[in-house]
Amino acid sequence: MIIYKYIKIVLFSLLMVPFCLNASVAARLPLEPQLKKTPAEREDKLKPGIINGIQEAISPSVLEEDEDWNATPEKPTPPIARDFKEMSSSIKQAMEKQNFKLGDHPYSLQGLPIAYTSKTTGFNLGTRISLADLKTEDPYTFLFSFQFWQTDRGAKNHQISLDVPELFSKHWRLKLTYTYPEVIDNNYFGLGNKSVYNQDFITPGNPNFISRNYYQYIFVYPRFTIDLSYKFFRERLSLYGGIGIDKGTIHPINKDSTSKIYTEQPYGYNGGKTNYIKIGLKFDSRDYPMNPTKGFVVAATYTDHVKFMGSDFNYVNIDLTYMGFFAFLNYFVLSHRVMIDQALGNNLPFFALAEFNSYNNYQGLGGEDTLRGAPTFRYIDNLKFINQLELRTRFYNGVVFGQHMELFLVPYWDFGKVWDRYKKINFEDLHHTVGNEFRFTWNTTFIASFTMGFSKDNFATYLSFGESFD
After folding, report:
1. Helix runs in 256-395, H state only
2. In terms of pTM, does the model score above 0.85?
3. Taking the CB of the first residue and of the last residue of the chain, which one, N or C, has fewer CB atoms within 10 A?
4. What is the pLDDT confidence band of residue 200, given thresholds at 50, 70 and 90?
């Protein structure tokens, strides 16, 4: 019965994809899965952005197939094809210039500083650095990422990760990640769709004012994860497993009636470990995992927070995830993600109800992962559903200071809902948010995004790194 309910949600979500794409996508995308291409091979097919892509209006079909690039006596190379070959050649040369070598391994190093001010967290300062070994370019031999992010008010968001796509062979993948978030403005609104966010309570001068921090608390949640996967069936299917070791700590900002979490003290208020072991199956036909333009992902994940792993809470998560990417009209990619997560157990800590436990872990509903624009953890409960649509619009694709850059504007629409049990599933009064994202890619493997989102509650901005639908 639970699976039947989940299938209904997935079918409903798929209907949200605009029907007008059917013809254009079917005409442009191959029906059979294609082997993944290296970044260098992808450059041969790169179409310029809107600003520098006027030539595309002449003959968009020129780039559709490899044979269109090959001149023959019967079919000479079109002038536009020569122009694009020259452009792709210059991009390749620029990518080679930014690499450095250690031995026979080429490496790519990217990094950005983090510096801005926020009303709630103060002055933010840090950096994000990525180092990729490009000897194997599908997508890399390994990618090492480091992030240091701290504010003058005590907030932290440190990360370090290592991704090895071909551990023993091309079939094995290993990823190690350690994160240390110390969030000084985490939110607790209560459980369910009817949880109240009354801004009168946090607005000085209002007759109902309680405290600026009435809904907020400090949440420290360090986590170390090990994820291992094995690919088979033309490297499209993968069986994956992983473990996570973490500990949540809650500190109320005010220890009196001016703090909602202190007043209610929901289950899990004293914090604790939610260590887990997970296993899942995933089908992935994306052309490239970083910044994909076509293909889709379907994944099912079972996560068990068990005592023998050292968890203080005993519960499980069942998660279904779908992602699709559809390119059309040369400059656009429609990206679609649907996630459903059911938490089952008798002692579920409230902070665990705000997590989607897929092959990667995401937060929601609300925050930078899901229902973007709504306050973090705006709606939480045992069963969560989110549907996200993005229109990735590339307006620049070229070389800047010898580096390959792509710039995107990404308008999006998120909607979802939560329930305490599957029998209450319905699609009335869904929660909606809309917004736009400025997306910057640097030599394919480094992605930074600045997102603005609007909800019925407020306006929010986020700075994030990496592929948003990963």
Report:
1. 260-264
2. no
3. N
4. very high
